[in-house]
Amino acid sequence: xxxxxxxxxxxxxxxxxxxxxxxxxxxxxxxxxxxxxxxxxxxxxxxxxxxxxxxxxxxxxxxxxxxxxxxxxxxxxxxxxxxxxxxxxxxxxxxxxxxxxxxxxxxxxxxxxxxxxxxxxxxxxxxxxxxxxxxxxxxxxxxxxxxxxxxxxxxxxxxxxxxxxxxxxxxxxxxxxxxxxxxxxxxxxxxxxxx
Length: 195
Ligand SMILES: [Zn+2]
Ligand SMILES: [Zn+2]
Ligand SMILES: [Zn+2]
Fold this sequence. Notes:
Blueprint: E1 3-5, E2 8-10, E3 19-21, E4 28-30, H1 49-59, H2 65-84, H3 86-110, E5 127-131, H4 136-143, H5 148-156, E6 163-167, H6 168-176, H7 185-188
Helix pairs in contact: 2-3, 3-5
One zinc ion binds near residues 119 and 183.
């Protein structure tokens, strides 16, 4: 039942003619506007879907106190588990490794795939990402990246054309030969820099 006082409905938590008054917004709405809840006498949640949605949105909004607290609790419990549960720790480490492998793959694909730009070597174990302009040290310092950090930074930066895929031989040859692999200096079409 619903009773009307001064034109406002008062929630009585009873379904009448398929209508139920929301305890949140106090609007009478069809039961299709409520999620089912078998524990309730009415068979539905006391608050309508829109109210529940709004509540969740507020609770999960970035920077909300509840969200920060929840994240902190989660972080604390996961840190504890990481220290005390070897299975959890190993799973975490495996996942991190897989993530790095995925990032590495994506980076190589973005720079021409797993093939040396100089000699065509395709053995993955030999291939490296090489800074075309030989400014790797500067670059690493500038962005505080190296290894996984570099892959992540490259992804965020949209894989700028500063790298190429080289095999270890060509990379080494390039370094020892003033910036150009002895294989074929002309193929690069890049500036030669003193190292
Ligand atoms: Zn409502
Ligand atoms: Zn090569
Ligand atoms: Zn080469």
